[in-house]
Amino acid sequence: MRTKIVPPGVKHLEYEIRQIVEDAHRIAAAGASIIWENIGDPIEMGEPVTPWIREIVQELVTEDKSWGYCPSRGVNQTREFLAEQVNMRGGAQINRDGILFVNGIADAVDKVYDLVQKDARIIMPSPSYPTHSSNEAKRGEYNNLTFPLDPEQNWKPDLDDLRNKVKYNPQIVAIAFVHPDNPTGTVYSEEDMRAIVEIARQYNLFLICDEIYAHICYNGAKTLHLSSVIEDVPALSLRGISKEYPWPGARCGWFEILNQGKDEDFDEYIRALVNAKMMEVCSTTLPQMSIPRVFSDPRYPQHLKDRAAVYETRACEAYDTFKDVEGTMVTLTQGAFYFPVVFRKGVLNDKQTLPIENPNVRTLVEGMVKGVSPDKRLVYYLMGHCGICVTPLSGFHCDLLGFRMTLLQHNDARRRQTLSTLRGAIQAYIAS
Hints:
eight-stranded mixed β-sheet; four-stranded antiparallel β-sheet
């Protein structure tokens, strides 16, 4: 090409959760059987579709209007319904123009960061979900600005670090976080949420809160929506049905736009989000139409409670499996459906191995581990040794070494066997 095509920030587009799949398929092709513990898809992991939710969607398919375009902002009836849901929380109040539909949260995140000017920065926790951190980094030639979540204190956010970085980096325009968090499974306390809101108010920032797991809270944690504590600070909450129904294939998400009219720059930014959506015509109609019927069904609250109870049981299983493995740090997760295992400093190195019986798989893995981070090296050996595919924690833009697995396997015996196998393999790897 006579002129360079891609901007330099494109090199920061990394999504280890999916990228590790490419290597896992290569290992599988060499003769290994893979157990997928990297992707957050409950359906793929055996969770059956709830019959009454399936029936609602089937009924909607028979309606002709579910096959057509809808308004660019989203189905009006659904937006009105969701706005009322926000208002019932008792915090920020919105109307239907405070709801903007997108094709899944990943689509929302892409728009959020693309429409922020290049030299402005968005700070977020570390570990951070790579859809957010990669989209932030791709806009320029710089490293992510992050504040740490402390694994020694149940992944509590370091608010002093956040406050100092905001104070001394005037290019920061927003604070972004996932709540409940992915990959750590932490649920922020109301005190910490209000402290983050106060930092945003003090330094005239807006907030971005990815609430896709908002109703998956357990082990004593309760759902706390940003809209309930935001007061007068401008913010975007990102919501969806992929993890709640669950219906990840619907690719149906939306923004809750909080405190429009409080800041001219924020309002201009929201107009840009709306105009960008209009260029796409609209988001998929059918799943939007299902939301009022599903959310208002008297069976839905129990549906959410039952699923949260399932993940509580599985989180306790995972915690009990790894809590006494020497060299690791684990906490009892309280939200979402992931479980991270962190290795203490110095535990992992570039000499450790696991036996791999298949010579083709062994040769492939030995080639893959050259020059990679110590936790990714472990992940490759786990795939070659026992066929379990997890995601290295370093893939979440952090300095911690470890891995994230899911709590999604619906087959109880298979899930417990996977946990037992992982525990034994990790102990053998550390000792090697």
